[in-house]
Amino acid sequence: MASAFLNSTMQGLNSTATYTTVFEEVSKYNVHLNFFEKLWTSWYLWMQNDTLATGLMSFIMHEAVYFGRSLPWVICDAIPFFRKWKIQNQKIPTAREQWECAALVLLQHCTVELPQIWLFHPVAVYLGLEYGVPFPPLWKMAMQISILFVMEDAWHYWFHRALHYGPLYRAIHKMHHTYSAPFGLAAEYASPIEVMLLGFGVVGCPVVWVALTNDLHLLTMYVWIVLRLFQAIDAHSGYDFPWSLRKFLPFWAGADHHDLHHEKFIGNYASSFRWWDYVLDTEAGVEASKKRRERKLAEIRAKKAQ
Fold this sequence. Notes:
GO molecular function, one term: monooxygenase activity
Organism: Rhypophila decipiens
Largest sheet: none
Protein name: Methylsterol monooxygenase
Distance between the termini: 72 Å
Mean pLDDT: 92
Low-confidence stretches: 1-9
Shape: globular
Main location: membrane
Number of strands: 0
Order of helices and strands: HHHHHHHHHHHH
Structural class: mainly alpha
Number of helices: 12
Domain Fatty acid hydroxylase: 147-282
């Protein structure tokens, strides 16, 4: 696909050209591209191997976003001022717990996720994924990402709920519940099987989408993954601020939703939205339990009255 980027003026570049040289040549002869499109094009031309270029860029992006987004929550946990917004403020992770969690997550990224990242490019391109320039319009990216959020949320709900079935919980999901009061770094602290199973919703949904529609760009998928990582890390942060997104979007799950799941070990199975748990009566917490009790009592009274 890198050949699709080539312009006749680029064919004189040799394999020893630096990235800066390639970028200068791309900028000189492709003025119709914006700055980021030039950076993107130059990367693929410079790498001269599209699978390697996508794999390396994907892995670096994933690590930078995951640990970069987790860092503010590590800082919050270290500063007492933020305890007023900590949902379970009697349970603050220690520095050792944070370090051990980060080390295991990084190990799994390198051993479990990296091979999948490397295989993604040839499979997705075969199914129709685009990764050339120009980039898709913002409206299309926003529409597709919204659909991916809904698709992944459904996948996550049903498979996460299944993982709470006794034998599956003990064999697979128990590791993720090591921390009853979660923190940002623990978002991907899970067994390799769970990482692959629930991670398929993040990567597999775009693959299914492109297989069905033949219309998805790699940049759209990158933005989707970044936003989904933000959502997962924030949901595990343990903090519920007055400005948290769920305060403005009532159907957004947020940290309070997932924190209850870790505290009670059951209920609140969805990832991004609240509607699956609401409709299927799997909400966790005191209020949800109270409503269920009241509903059962009303049913009993109704039967006695007959």
